[in-house]
Amino acid sequence: MLQVEIRVKGQIDENWSEWFAGLEIAHTDQDETILTGDVVDQAALYGLLARLRDLGLPLVSATSAEVGRGQATAEKEEDRE
Fold it and tell me: Are 42 and 29 in contact (CB under 8 A)?
């Protein structure tokens, strides 16, 4: 699992979240949209970047960090408590 943050120039309506794999959509004062959340793997990340490209939105930045299985397991255990 990857945690991602993608920034693009322009505004994407929050209603498009589902089309972007359920990523959270936020806007900045610099006319940018920030998409954040989890994707299953690099292939899914590339798919999201392709969708943004197809919309003609200029990419500002894209960062990702792998969520370790131990960390994900610990978070699920905390949710059960």
Answer: no
CB 33 within 8 A of CB 8: yes
Taking the domains of the chain in order of start, what are their residue ranges? Answer: 2-80
pTM for the full predicted model = 0.80
Q: What is the mean pLDDT of each run of 10 residues along the chain (81 residues)?
A: 97 94 96 97 95 96 85 44 47
Buried b (16+ CB within 10 A) or exposed e, 4-37: bebbbeeebeeeeeeebbebebeeeeeebbbbeb
pLDDT at position 70 is 55
Q: What angle do CA 8, 61, 30 make, to 5 degrees?
A: 45
- Residue 8's alpha-carbon distances to 1, 13, 65, in angstroms, are 22, 13, 18
Structural fold of domain 2-80 = Alpha-Beta Plaits (3.30.70)
